[in-house]
UniProtKB/TrEMBL annotation:
Species whose genome carries this gene: Marinobacter gudaonensis
UniProt-recorded name of the protein: Plastocyanin
CDD domains in UniProt: MauL
Lineage: Bacteria, Pseudomonadati, Pseudomonadota, Gammaproteobacteria, Pseudomonadales
Length: 213
């Protein structure tokens, strides 16, 4: 009897569910790399620190996923100045023409998709995806990612969950799309994406004009 009582008094911990997800291109079935996939959770992520540096007139990485509240630095490693900005509702900011490291990092205090640009080099484009859930990941070259999900709540639909998926080539890349999937088997999602933009010349238009003077 004492052993039974001891067993009954021990807390029972629900085990998180590992959900494999594959994202493919609609119409071709080709894997889609770089898709950000997330699931809303009760737990919230811990803010972090990160950086997006500029090199060869490009943002590295082009897509950065950070928890809400994170600080991101934007060091310039080019031999030319940059002017980094964003007009996105999730974070509007402006780092005027600079070389080296800006005076302070940018704090991304609201969830959402933040598109980055450079006021000097129009071809530069980057994204910060600010997430308010720890259950987030980015698909690899095979279009695959595995998310660790919380145990379901009594109010949840049994075996169903809503995935939020974002990719820079979505027709509207200012926000993720939501797809409902079952958690009883690996999930497969097909995305409709706009064609990839042609590669830009190694010189932006402003510098080309200078060379022609």
């Amino acid at each position: 009897m004492p052993a039974i009582l001891l067993l009954a008094s021990c807390p029972v911990f629900a085990v998180a569910l590992e959900l494999p997800i594959t994202v493919t291109l609609e119409g071709t079935g080709e894997p889609v790399a770089g898709a950000v996939v997330s699931v809303d959770t009760r737990n919230k992520p811990t803010p972090d620190t990160a950086e997006i540096y500029q090199k060869n007139r490009a943002f590295h990485p082009q897509i950065l996923v950070v928890p809400v509240g994170s600080s991101v630095d934007f060091p310039n490693r080019d031999n030319t100045q940059h002017h980094v900005y964003s007009f996105s509702p999730a974070k509007t900011f402006n780092i005027e023409l600079y070389a080296g490291r800006p005076e302070a990092p940018i704090v991304f205090d609201q969830p959402g998709v933040v598109e980055l640009g450079c006021n000097i080099h129009d071809q530069m484009q980057g994204f910060v995806v600010v997430s308010d859930t720890p259950a987030v990941g980015t698909t690899d070259d095979a279009g695959q990612v595995t998310l660790s999900l919380e145990p379901s709540r009594s109010s949840d639909s049994p075996g169903r969950i809503g995935l939020e998926i974002w990719h820079p080539r979505l027709p509207d890349n200012t926000r993720p799309i939501t797809v409902e999937v079952t958690t009883s088997e690996p999930a497969s999602v097909s995305l409709s994406l706009v064609p990839e933009a042609p590669a830009e010349s190694s010189l932006d238009l402003l510098q080309q004009r200078f060379r022609e003077l």
